[in-house]
Amino acid sequence: MTKSRKYVRLKDAPLLPPPATEAGVTGWLWQNIFASMTDFQSIGACVRSLFMIFFSLLLVYVFVDQTFSLMDFAIFSAVWSDPEGLKREACWTLQQGGALPDGWHGACWPFVWAKQKFAWFGPYPSEELWRVYLSFAIGIFGLIWVLVERMPFRAQVGVLMLTIYPLFAFILLTGGNSGASFTGIGVWIIAGIAVISVGRIGATGYLGAVFSSVSGVFGIVGWGIVALNVFRGVAAVDFNLTPVGTGDWGGLLITLVVALTGIVASLPLGIVLALGRRSKLPVISILCTIFIEFWRGVPLITVLFMASVMLPLFLPAGVNFDNLLRALIGVMLFSAAYMAEVVRGGLQAIDKGQYEGAQAMGLSFWQSMRLIILPQALTHVIPGIVNTFIGLFKDTTLVSIVGIFDLLGAGQSAVADAAWSTPVQAITMYLYIGIIFFIFCFGMSRYSIFMEKKLSKSRRH
Amino acid sequence: MRTNSISSLIYDSKVRGYFFQTIILLALSASIWWLIDNTVTNLADRGKTVGFGFLGENAGFQISATLGTWLFDYNVGQSSYLDVYFIGITNTFLVAILGIAGATVLGFTIGIMRLSQNFIIRAFATVYVELLRNLPLLLQLFFWYFAVLRALPSKRDKIEIIPDAVAMNITGLYLPAPIVESGFMYTVIAFFIAIAMTFALRAWALKRQSETGQRFPVFWTAIGIIISLTTLTFWLSGSPMNWSFPEFKTTGAILRRGFQSGSGMVLVPEMLAVWLALTLYTAAFIAEIVRAGILAVAKGQTEAAYSIGMRPGMTLRLIVIPQALRVIIPPLTSQYLNLTKNSSLAVAIAYPELVSIFAGTALNQVGKEIEMIFMMMMVYLTFSIATAAFMNWFNARVKLVER
Questions:
Q1: Among A140, A254, A285, B207, whose Cα sits 20 to 30 Å from the Cα of B311?
Q2: Closest CA to B175 of B189, B164, B186
Q3: Which domain range does residue B41 map to?
Q4: pLDDT tens digits, residue range A318-348?
Q5: Cβ B91 vs Cβ B354: under 8 Å
Q6: Is ipTM over 0.90?
Q7: Within this chain, do residues B25 and B143 fall inside the same structural domain, yes or no?
Q8: What are phi and psi of B324, to 5 degrees?
Q9: Nearest Cβ partner of A426 from B45, B124, B147?
């Protein structure tokens, strides 16, 4: 049985290109710009389309206008150099007694160049600046090592950055040779080792069952004492460096020191507080909640005021902290409370089965936290931690209000310099400081978004 | 098997719990006692006493004219430190409330713009958010105050925004001030009666809709009632309100030229700078919250609403917004709280708010650190706790009832 076939298509029909409104540049333009402003089918749609056209044009105008005036101010009209050393007169118009045309409005960069060292390092002695550069360089190197995923030994480098590096930077920046007596420190270290040993012996049960349950506390306290005194001991060694007091620090150096100390100290404190708040023991949970809510309820400024005014009253007479340390303590307690809430969010997101599984395996509370819960909870909230850090980084500017010259404070005092007094002095300095802050904060927020994406990918099953 | 009663006590988690809590309480009491002891010694060394008697003393410093000084009728050397405290609180909350209003409007606008189909609108909103969020608030405050508002015309000059009514110069923004005469009370009463009526109307309309299915345009009727009743009472009681316009002199002695005090109303530049900085900064955060909230409503919700025949407006009002608000409101409240706390940055440009005049100027004069910082922190703490209470109430109310 044969059937005559009139037409058989042997080749596939050619693929048509997608409609112009769906692909390519025109498609993108259509979908993202014109689709919303070309609907004229009803009166309502007409009004909406006209509004869209008007609003888009307005925004384009505002954006182009602002961008252009910023470029003009910062680049095209700006004064870039001051070869004759005229200082403020280099940025004066004819009317004001300078050489620039009347109505000129541009950045006065020579002012920033002149104040650059001050804005970055404050009154830190110029011949000792290599110490700051060295600690910055090692810090940046270590940070990149930890953040880039292809690098080997990331965890080890991270531990070094959290233990050896702060000590190293502390000695480099202050000059070490703190003058503490080595005998005293030695006694403390021996005492610390004794406490650890007692804890170890207790853990084996020789000192009775009651003791074995609290032996963990002895371990923590003992290691704390030893670590603190090793730090003090190394800081007391004379490395033959010129001492530089914190009063001579300033600028970006202070900003970074405050922000980094705040974040490094607030993470462990925050974890302890978050665990405490979720504790089943009412006293601990209430105390932690009060602590957290107190610091979160007051502005950082009042905390800094309190640290600088009230701390000297709380401590025994004769114990005297320098200004920077006081502010650091305030910042630490403040950011610990915020960090605690971030960590608590992570703890709450962990499935109940994980807690139960850890218990079923016979792990103690601390073991299950250390091995099962915290690693998951902390990875979960890395974006939150980075966001807290961005917030803290921006908040370090507040220390300038209690008289510590951070980047903004140093800039603000540079603005008060009459030798450079021009109408564009303030705005130039703010632009410069703004760019520095923006680079840091924007970079960190990108990193947080990157981590968020990566984590949500790895969590997808 | 015989159990040892002591070791069973030791392994009883309840007993261990009590044991640890007692230890912690003891340690805490000991350290608090240590702190108090140190403080008492230090205060005695410095010859200071503790007490709130200073609040009745007269404050001897100038505070720039703001809502607080006007409300509490501040006079140097006659008003007490308690007045200073209340002036500070008033000015803090004034700028906080204005900032919250501004940041909400701007933040919602920018947040919705970030979700626009239109690339231009979306990109503009993104640039705004990224720029404002990544710069410290204090820097923005300095920028507005020292770089922008200082560039305004001098004291003897002005920029007119609305001729003869609204103008600006370096001393502030000048607005017409309402002057209330006796009898204005009736208008206020009428306004509240009108609001009560709209609530009654809404209840009636809802009842009727559930009985008969007929809908009633409550919103427009309510606006009509409020406007007409208030205006009518105002007019019937003889229009008991006048406007005092700011007076600007260009003639006469040089030192007398410019805006005349006692006419119109002035917003000091410090307040404008704080308000601008707080509004623009917080709006960037609110925009992100709004965007996340709207994105959190599943697309199926909108599609389901369309499929049962709801129009887009209704869908937005009855389906999307209620669900988005459940996500938006908790972080939004904490942004309001942040804004209120951030208003304390105003101390940096000497806007007379709580931290600036009470914990700053007044503290320097009186030197009662403990009492004054305690009083200042209490204001912020009370506000935070009140907000937290509201948030808990709200969360409980809107919690998803799961079946």
A1: B207
A2: B164
A3: 5-45
A4: 777 788 888 898 999 999 999 999 999 888 8
A5: yes
A6: no
A7: no
A8: -65, -40
A9: B147
